[in-house]
């Protein structure tokens, strides 16, 4: 398809007309010191992913819900209507995003060992060692400022995108517009459409604030962006300009990715004073009195004495003035593993609501630290 020059010009007008209209919140975007800015290592170049779909260039502007969305962006945020219309006309409907957002069909039983083997493997560990070596000062600074250990930050970024190697191949506006206005039939369809509509709004606000072309943002099929795979709303809430260059760049700045993940975890319950590892192995009694401790909110809710009374035992003694949770890691036909986890484990589940995910972040970070000899 040939470039549409008038539309491109209109898009540039959108950015220019609204530049500076949203002020940065200094609390959400802390600045690195001048000394750190002067001595910061250049961020590793992140390849811009190629869009791997054709998409369907539907006329979103004819959809009533889209027109109402544009009205809100004009009334609430001061966007210029003609420029917004031009932008919307370039958005594509992406059928593959609709397919990927649907729940996976029932398959094999959950298997922690199989999941672990996908992520705790030599390629990811070696890449993690290089990433840690190249960003050691930044990781140490993030750990000191936010209390999140370097190995957790390295583990999470390795699980998410292999340190920026795979950040997604969807235009964020395409994915979000599709899911905001054409979400597939599901029991929670109304709520999910509202969520993606909000993220479409956040994308336009972030692009205007950052002075970038919103169509240049690529990410996952759900609209997650950059090395840490932040949704646009989380970039606005938790994104950090950790390299001190005056902008938040989660696509090209390893420092900003590191600082933003540390900030996110700290704001979601990471406790630098928790003591000990986030999770320790446990054994459970045949009485199964502990079963009621599984499920429910992903949070530490029980004292060690309560766990012990329910038949949960650990080799490591835990302070009784802190709370813990029971974690089950299913292994298919093999016995389930049980762990006792503190607040820091559950802080990671705020990033991805999965015990497998949180444990893989912990284990990858540990494996990278051991491989570095630290």
From TrEMBL:
Keywords: Signal. InterPro entries: Lysozyme-like_dom_sf, Lytic_transglycosylase_MltB, MltB-like, SLT_2. It holds the Pfam family SLT_2. The keyword Signal applies. Coiled coil: none annotated. It comes from the Bacteria. Residues 64-365 form the Transglycosylase SLT domain. Residues 1-23 form the signal peptide. Residues 26-45 are annotated as: Disordered. This is Lytic murein transglycosylase B.
């Amino acid at each position: 398809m040939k470039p549409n020059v008038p539309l491109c010009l209109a898009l540039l007008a959108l950015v220019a007309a609204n530049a500076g209209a949203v002020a940065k919140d200094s609390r959400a975007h802390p600045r690195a010191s001048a000394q750190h800015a002067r001595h910061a290592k250049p961020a590793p170049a992140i390849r811009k992913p190629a869009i791997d779909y054709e998409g369907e260039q539907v006329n979103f502007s004819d959809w009533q819900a889209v027109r109402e969305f544009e009205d809100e962006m004009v009334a609430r945020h001061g966007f210029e209507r003609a420029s917004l219309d031009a932008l919307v006309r370039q958005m594509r409907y992406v059928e593959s995003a609709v397919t990927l957002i649907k729940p996976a069909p029932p398959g094999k039983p959950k298997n922690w060992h199989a999941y672990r083997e996908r992520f705790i493997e030599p390629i990811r560990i070696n890449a993690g060692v290089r990433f840690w070596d190249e960003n050691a000062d930044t990781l140490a600074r993030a750990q000191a400022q936010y209390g999140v250990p370097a190995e957790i930050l390295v583990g999470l970024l390795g699980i998410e995108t292999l340190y920026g190697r795979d950040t997604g191949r969807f235009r964020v506006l395409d994915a979000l517009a599709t899911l905001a206005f054409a979400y597939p039939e599901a029991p929670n369809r109304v709520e999910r459409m509202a969520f993606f509509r909000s993220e479409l709004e956040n994308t336009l606000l972030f692009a205007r604030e950052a002075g970038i072309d919103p169509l240049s943002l690529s990410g996952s099929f759900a609209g997650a962006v950059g090395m840490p795979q932040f949704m646009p709303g989380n970039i606005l809430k938790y994104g950090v300009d950790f390299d001190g260059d005056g902008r938040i760049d989660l696509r090209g700045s390893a420092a900003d990715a590191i600082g933003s993940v540390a900030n996110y975890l700290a704001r979601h319950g990471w406790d630098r004073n928790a003591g000990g590892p986030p999770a320790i192995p446990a054994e459970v009694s045949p009485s199964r009195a502990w079963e009621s401790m599984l499920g429910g909110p992903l949070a530490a809710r029980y004292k060690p004495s309560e766990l012990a009374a329910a038949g949960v035992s650990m080799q490591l003694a835990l302070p009784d003035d802190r709370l813990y949770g029971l974690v089950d890691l299913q292994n298919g036909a093999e016995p389930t593993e049980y762990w006792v986890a503190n607040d820091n484990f559950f802080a990671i589940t705020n990033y991805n609501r999965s015990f497998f995910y949180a444990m893989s972040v912990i284990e990858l970070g540990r494996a990278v630290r051991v491989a570095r000899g630290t």
